[in-house]
């Protein structure tokens, strides 16, 4: 059976991430990993904090902390939030780790040996006020392509164009705000992407046919425009050092590698961290996932659209240039943006709902379901509190939560704390089983295809099928004339609850656990995937099994709640 390697775009270390980051990479990767594990696949889900580059230094400076201490604190803080969201990484590493430094320097040495890195004298922006060369992200200004006034020196956040600092109009220092900038000569290393363009194009042609249009079109756009040689070193105090045994002069000057050079390598570095963290008597082979693994591993990456160029062009070029058999991505699942009342979620501008604040308001499954049900796959999606409350109330509280409460409360009232037996299944139960099997097949198909909105819709349809069955059979009426008929209906509905507990696990894992805990049965303890035939039978939970009625699964969001949320976070266009 194919092993599945999964990575999600590395979250920057400069603060807790917003829901746009969550839905654009980590959450869908977790949903997919959970689904594959349920199906019995060998899965390795790797992520890490992206700790190098200008954002780390600027954030540490603003916090008044040494950058290493700041990064360590933020890594722990981010991990706590992701744990709260139920993200089950196999390992959540750090790009500042010893393992990533070693592997990044190895990549650089191999690229140099093969003629794909060269040292060049360049003209770079120097800040007179700061007394230093400014890395690209230390420079902000107006984008020459779209006119966005807060573009960074490496990329415009608005139009996603990759920039050089000298491209910016009305440029100023992000450190001091000074416009006293001049261009001076300095030396840097360049990755000769132009020499690798044909190989990268062949890679994209071979793999991109399978990718979503969003990912493949961005990669092909870069290739159509032609790959330029890219500077891969910066003047920063914090980063992967240029190895002194290869470039002694640059090392002496304190040059470090560009964050977009070492960050994708960080997936490999974090996998080695995972291997090195193995417990006593446990063996973990990180190389089997990354080296000479083309036939045995399927590699899927999750990211927002602004990260696509680096993962589909620059990182493959880096891997190809080593002339070593590093595993390259098979499938790139790219997402558009989640907007906040028409404006962008933005970490740098503190606009939108941030993951820690979201968990303070409501449990993780509220957010997980909403984000997957409206995942920005085909276009940008807009967050509003009105839409959020509508989805939570209708889908989670009314469709799933109310079904569970009605069935269990009524059954306990009429039959006690054990699953009743009742008649043998009849025509209504056979129709229900066929409908459940059909919807389950749709749900599986959408998860296999990484179509998360469609998967959430199919899951909701499964919940709705239970409600439709309950309304058709009306056990509150059956109990008056035929208690055994009512018992059959309730037993069947309880099997649906168990089934929902299993099938909902990828998207709403906390609720899934609560539903499986309802029944005092060995079958209910596991979350292994069910087949269509098992679902059709609806008999995993047998008569006589004990059960409990859980607390309310989903509290409805009231108008008062809605007004409170909007007052705190804003409810108008960003």
Automatic annotation (TrEMBL):
Cofactor note: Binds 1 zinc ion per subunit.
Pfam families recorded: Anticodon_3, tRNA-synt_1g
GO molecular function terms listed in the Swiss-Prot or TrEMBL record: methionine-tRNA ligase activity
Main location: cytoplasm
List of residues binding Zn(2+): 143, 146, 156, 159
Role: Is required not only for elongation of protein synthesis but also for the initiation of all mRNA translation through initiator tRNA(fMet) aminoacylation.
Stated name of the protein: Methionine--tRNA ligase
């Amino acid at each position: 059976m194919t092993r599945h390697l999964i990575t999600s775009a590395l979250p920057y270390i400069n603060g807790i991430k917003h829901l746009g980051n969550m839905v654009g990479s980590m959450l869908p990767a977790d949903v997919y990993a959970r689904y594959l594990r349920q199906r019995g696949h060998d899965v390795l889900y790797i992520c890490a904090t992206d700790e190098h580059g200008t954002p780390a230094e600027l954030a540490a400076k603003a916090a008044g902390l040494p950058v290493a201490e700041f990064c360590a604190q933020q890594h722990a803080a981010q991990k706590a939030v992701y744990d709260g969201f139920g993200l089950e990484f196999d390992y959540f590493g750090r790009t500042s780790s010893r393992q990533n430094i070693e592997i990044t320097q190895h990549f650089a040495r191999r690229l140099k040996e093969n003629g794909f890195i060269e040292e060049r004298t360049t003209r770079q922006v120097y800040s007179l006020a700061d007394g230093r060369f400014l890395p690209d992200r230390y420079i902000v200004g107006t984008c020459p392509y779209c006119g966005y006034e807060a573009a960074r020196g490496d990329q415009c956040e608005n139009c996603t164009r990759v920039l050089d600092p000298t491209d910016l109009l009305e440029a100023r220092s992000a450190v001091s705000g000074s416009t006293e900038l001049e261009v001076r000569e300095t030396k840097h290393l360049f990755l000769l992407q132009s020499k690798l363009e044909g190989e990268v194009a062949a890679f994209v042609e071979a793999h991109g046919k399978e990718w979503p249009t969003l990912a493949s079109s961005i990669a092909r756009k870069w290739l159509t425009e032609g790959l330029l040689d890219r500077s891969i070193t910066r003047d920063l105090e914090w980063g992967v050092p240029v190895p002194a045994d290869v470039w002694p002069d640059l090392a002496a000057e304190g040059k470090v590698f560009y964050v977009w050079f070492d960050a994708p390598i960080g997936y490999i570095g974090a996998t080695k961290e995972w291997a090195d963290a193995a417990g006593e008597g446990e063996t973990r082979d990180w190389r089997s996932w990354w080296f000479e693994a083309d036939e045995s591993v399927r590699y899927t990456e999750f990211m927002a659209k602004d990260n696509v160029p680096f993962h589909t062009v620059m990182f493959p070029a880096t891997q190809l240039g080593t002339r070593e058999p590093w595993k390259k991505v098979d499938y790139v699942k790219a997402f558009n943006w989640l907007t906040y009342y028409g404006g962008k979620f933005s970490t740098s501008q503190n606009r939108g709902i941030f993951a820690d604040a979201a968990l303070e308001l409501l449990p993780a499954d509220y957010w997980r379901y909403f984000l997957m049900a409206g995942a920005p796959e085909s276009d940008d999606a807009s967050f509003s509190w009105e839409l959020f409350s509508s989805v939570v109330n209708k889908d989670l509280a009314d469709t799933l939560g109310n079904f569970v409460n009605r069935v269990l409360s009524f059954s306990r009232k009429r039959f006690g704390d054990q699953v009743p037996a009742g008649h043998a299944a009849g025509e209504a139960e056979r129709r229900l089983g066929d409908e459940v099997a059909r919807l389950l097949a749709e749900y599986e198909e959408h998860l296999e295809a990484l179509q998360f909105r469609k998967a959430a819709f199919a899951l909701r349809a499964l919940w709705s099928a239970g409600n439709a069955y309950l309304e058709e059979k009306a056990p509150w009426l059956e109990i008056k004339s035929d208690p055994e008929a009512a018992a059959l209906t309730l037993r069947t509905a309880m099997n649906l609850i168990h089934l929902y507990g299993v099938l909902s696990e990828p998207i709403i894992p906390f609720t899934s656990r609560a539903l499986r805990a309802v029944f005092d049965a060995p079958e209910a303890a596991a979350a292994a995937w069910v087949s269509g035939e098992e679902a059709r039978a609806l008999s995993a939970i047998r008569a006589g099994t004990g059960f409990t009625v859980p607390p309310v699964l989903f509290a409805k969001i009231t108008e008062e709640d809605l007004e409170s949320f909007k007052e705190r976070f804003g409810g108008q266009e960003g």
